[in-house]
């Protein structure tokens, strides 16, 4: 039985001068999540957006906001993103000394907690948190920029995590982020992904193309 696949457009590839309209457009085009990449110029070599922008965008979509924090430290900013309207808050274990504490903080605010694995981070980093987290995000590029090429070695990691999640008996979503396109989406799905983040591939061609782009990536 094949699982339904969700598409989470990364608004990093949207037109930032029209961000609200872009979020509305992907919502109307059939996206499942709105993926928000938060970068601090320290944990990753790029700067993007903060909680004020997340809060402003909330008015444009009822979809779950899937907030990918690429910031260090994480804990001092979790409450601000929760209050701004994040539904899923994911962070990198390398960004702080106590990932378990960060997961508990996110959950104490009534939000879903995700752990992000960089391409170099082994699956073992998530093992002790399988009883607590709601989502695992596998980076298939080095975090920091949209438009990079998919790192194929991550397919094996996705498959291993699929087995770990299934063995755990818990409802944990397996999300893949970076370099997803019409060639790599089927590979990630076959390896066991539940959610595909796609920036470049969703926003290519402008608003009239978003619906077809999303359906193609999902394999509809
Ligand atoms: O987290 C990210 C980068 O750090 C982005 O979500 C990711 O790069 C998506 O962009 P694209 O689909 O263009 O690769
Ligand atoms: Fe991301």
From TrEMBL:
The keyword Isomerase is assigned to this record: yes
Keyword hit for Isomerase: yes
Pathway noted in the entry: Carbohydrate degradation
SUPFAM superfamilies hit by this protein: Ribulose-phoshate binding barrel
GO molecular function: D-ribulose-phosphate 3-epimerase activity; metal ion binding
Reactions accelerated catalytically: D-ribulose 5-phosphate = D-xylulose 5-phosphate
Binding-site positions, a divalent metal cation: 35, 37, 68, 177
Family the entry assigns: Belongs to the ribulose-phosphate 3-epimerase family.
NCBIfam families (alphabetical): PRK05581.1-4, rpe
Name of the featured protein: Ribulose-phosphate 3-epimerase
Biological classification of the source: Bacteria, Pseudomonadati, Pseudomonadota, Alphaproteobacteria, Rhodospirillales
């Amino acid at each position: 039985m094949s699982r339904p696949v969700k598409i989470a457009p990364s608004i990093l590839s949207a037109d930032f001068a029209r961000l609200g309209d872009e979020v509305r457009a992907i919502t109307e085009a059939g996206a499942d999540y709105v993926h928000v990449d938060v970068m601090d110029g320290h944990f990753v070599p790029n700067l993007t957006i903060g909680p004020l922008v997340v809060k402003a965008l909330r008015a444009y979509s009822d979809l779950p906001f899937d907030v990918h924090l690429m910031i260090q430290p994480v804990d001092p900013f979790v409450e601000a993103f929760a209050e701004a309207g994040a539904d899923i808050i994911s962070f990198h274990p390398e960004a702080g000394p106590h990932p378990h504490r960060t997961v508990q903080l996110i959950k104490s605010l009534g939000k879903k907690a995700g752990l992000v694995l960089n391409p170099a981070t082994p699956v073992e980093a998530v093992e002790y948190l399988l009883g607590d987290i709601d989502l695992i995000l596998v980076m298939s590029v080095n975090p920091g920029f949209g438009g990079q090429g998919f790192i194929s070695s991550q397919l094996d990691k996705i498959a291993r995590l699929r087995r770990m999640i299934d063995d755990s008996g818990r409802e944990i979503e397996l999300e893949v982020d970076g370099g997803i396109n019409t060639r790599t989406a089927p590979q990630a799905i076959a390896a066991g992904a539940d959610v595909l983040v796609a920036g470049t591939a969703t926003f290519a061609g402008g608003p009239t193309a978003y619906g077809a782009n999303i359906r193609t990536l999902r394999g509809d």
